[in-house]
Amino acid sequence: MPLPNLPYRFTKDQRKGIVALCLLIIIVQAGYFILNAFDFSSQAQKSEAEKQWLAHQSQIDALKVQQTGNEYKRYPFNPNYISDYKGYTLGMSVKEIDRLKAFRESGKFVNSKEEFQKITGMPDSILKSISPYFKFPDWVNKKQPAQHYASAEKQKNIYPEKKESVKPVLDINTAVEEDLVNVYGIGPAFAKKILRRRADLGAFVSMEQMDDFKEFSPEALAGLKKSFTVGSHPQVVTINVNTASLQQLARFPYFNRDIAKAIITERSMMGKIANFDELIKINDIFNYKSKIIRLYLDF
Fold first, then answer.
1. Same-domain check for residues 148 and 93
2. Backbone angles phi and psi of 103, in degrees to 5
3. Least confident of 30-44, 86-100, 235-249
4. For the packed helices 113-120 and 94-105, what is the interaxial angle rounded to 10 degrees?
5. What are the φ and ψ backbone dihedral angles of 77, each rounded to 5 degrees?
6. How many domains does the chain have?
7. What are the TM regions of this chain, as residue ranges (predicted)?
8. Domain range for residue 207?
9. CB of 243 within 8 A of CB of 267?
10. Are 95 and 154 contained in the same domain?
């Protein structure tokens, strides 16, 4: 089937011309890259250039050696704050650096080159080369030679520490959430847990009960015991061991469902639990917290 006559269809001669033009462009581009890739300078020219560079190489090496041999430029510094690296660059030995550090750790300062040599034991030759760069505060240079920086202990006596105001100790059984969150480590969630436990018990009978909150950090527990106390005659809610139901016993904070079932079983077998000593036989928890638990129980 013959192809239709397209408006942009080229003739045979036109197609040949297009192909020849593309080949010509490719050849020109290839020649350009080849000419740039190769250096067609003569070997004689190269050798002459190398000879000129080599002739100046000795001068270049001499300049490098001269530059390397230049002395490190020093700047004024306070000898009280010499680091290990700084001491090494100054030519100090390890023992001299350690003596200076021990003197500084005592809270004292070096105020003259003579005192620096006395403390470090530095030889005169090294001290002579570095002492011109010692820079002390202006007030040290203006004061009498016999005076020295005040030690840390003296400064402490001159400027006594500010006494913190002692906060009153609050009753844990009357504290509100705003009081509890003032303790470091106690946020609103932990404060609500304390208030819910107090509502279940009626009142806390000892600050040792804060240890029941295992999720509290040691800092939070210490802060609670420092900021709060148990007032006189806390109004606790007691539970009668012989008349309480299984649900009531299980809801008691120091019991669980297993302990509640054991109490019901013991009560049904014996008829009545007479005292706290009989409860001790049921579960070890009564031995562990007997002083606290017995205050919440009736028989």
1. yes
2. -65, -40
3. 30-44
4. 110
5. -150, 160
6. 3
7. 18-38
8. 170-229
9. no
10. yes
